[in-house]
Amino acid sequence: MKAAALVGPGDVRVFEIAKPKPGPGELLVKIEACGLCSSELGMWNNPRFSSKQPVFFGHEASGVVVETGEGTETFRAGDRVTLFTDRGGYAEYIAVPEQWAVKLGDHIPFDWALGEPIGCAMNATARSGIEVGDTVALIGVGFMGGLILQGARLKGASRIIAVDTREESLELARKLGADEVIDARKDNAAERILDLTEGRGADVVIEATGHQAALDTATQAVRIRGRLIVFGYHQHGTRTIDMQIWNWKGLDVINAHERDPEAYMRGIRTGMRLLNSGQLLVEPLLSHYYPIDDIQEAFQAAMQKPHGFLKAVITF
């Protein structure tokens, strides 16, 4: 079967490897779609990356159960599932423990059902502490930010202010129901948020970019005794914060990434319920599709972000 692996800096290749067999309590899943994650982009673009063996990766996968291992109880061949896995989702088949699979409705396309990132976004929304009537400022409206924006509205935010530097992201925010959008290339985003809130600041500010400038904006834009949610995946070096402002404002600061598999699964189940019921939109967040043989091109596009780029999905 075909499977993609990272072999060096900026170099991902497709290999022919043996098809796995499901062990006890495992499912063999034929992968239909696997999203490209920004965390993988950081590894792919790291000039210091080195490994003696190919690193098979991909963790945003969905597909169809084709075989079940001994002792499985919940699933059967033909079930449509999304997965939580770190075993190499850029592959035609993958074997995973059945507890890391969630069933999909028949009406949900596989490319919409990218369980792991949807679960991350729903967990971040849950940890945000958004209350009914809150003003929420979201800094960064890519794929993950678009999910969080919808989650914030479902949590009861009465006003959502979206900030980005790309026109396609600002347009996405409008489509998803943001009340105001701010182009950070043209305006001082923190000052605009303060203006829009009559100098008070947003009740909750969610940073979803992974960049220093967004942390600085969030620090300035959140109200006294507000909540600052760090969701962006920060890579390649340290970040600085103005602790004097954090202290003076008495902020609640939440680092909203989960590393507990059970927490991931709770978020994925929540996301799939919302997706199945039509309360969560994923299709507008997807922009580029590539067959597995073109995965190197997909990573190049994710790094360069051509006009209109939001999220790349590998298909099989």
CATH secondary-structure class of the largest domain: Alpha Beta
Beta-sheet strand percentage?
A: 25-35%
- H/E series: EEEHEEEEEHEHEHEHEHEHEHEHE
By helix and strand content, what is the structural category? alpha/beta
Look up the CATH topology of the largest domain: Quinone Oxidoreductase, Chain A, domain 1
Spell out the CATH superfamily of the largest domain. Medium-chain alcohol dehydrogenases, catalytic domain
Global mean pLDDT: 96
Our count of helices gives: 9
> What composes the largest sheet?
7 strands, mixed
Care to count the β-strands?
16
Percent of residues in helices:
25-40%
* Total domain count: 2
Q: Give me the CATH architecture of the largest domain, please.
A: Alpha-Beta Complex
Low-confidence parts lasting 5 or more residues at pLDDT below 50?
Answer: none
Domain Enoyl reductase (ER): 8-314
Pfam family, one: ADH_zinc_N
Keywords: Metal-binding, Oxidoreductase, Zinc
Protein name: Zinc-binding dehydrogenase
